[in-house]
Write a structure and sequence with these properties.
Structural class: alpha+beta
Strand content: 25-35%
Number of helices: 3
Number of strands: 5
Strand order of the largest sheet: 3-1-2-4-5
Largest sheet: 5 strands, mixed
């Protein structure tokens, strides 16, 4: 079994309702994020690849364009702009092109926080 991964960076602003640090979270503020998208599988015997990197990169670029330099509160299909929701949002954008998607991790550079999503549990 192999894992193939790529990362992309994006910067975005949002507000957030929280139990603590409410004043600073409710104001518009931004973060720098890194998203790692991991595919898992066996290479195709013909191509030797889990997935063509060009196709993989295009799927990630499409997701990045939907997030980079955006006000995340305005994304109708995101919900509150948490790392959990960002991970699942990226999953939903990438999965149609990458059926062997294994994990999406979103990292926030400012506090070294991270959240990983492994797909829907059936």
């Amino acid at each position: 079994m192999f894992e193939l991964s790529k990362e992309f960076r994006f910067d975005a602003a949002h507000t957030l309702e929280r139990v603590i640090d409410t004043e600073s979270s409710r104001r518009i503020h931004g973060h720098s994020y890194r998203a790692e998208v991991v595919l898992r599988g066996r290479p195709d015997p013909q191509t030797g690849m889990i997935m063509d990197l060009g196709i993989f990169e295009r799927a990630l670029e499409s997701a990045r364009e939907g997030l980079d330099h955006r006000f995340l509160d305005e994304l109708n299909d995101l919900g509150p702009a948490t790392m959990e929701n960002l991970s699942t949002w990226i999953w939903r954008k990438v999965e149609p092109v990458c059926p062997n998607l294994w994990r999406v991790t979103v990292r926030r550079d400012s506090d070294q926080g991270a959240c990983s999503y492994f797909g829907r549990e059936d």
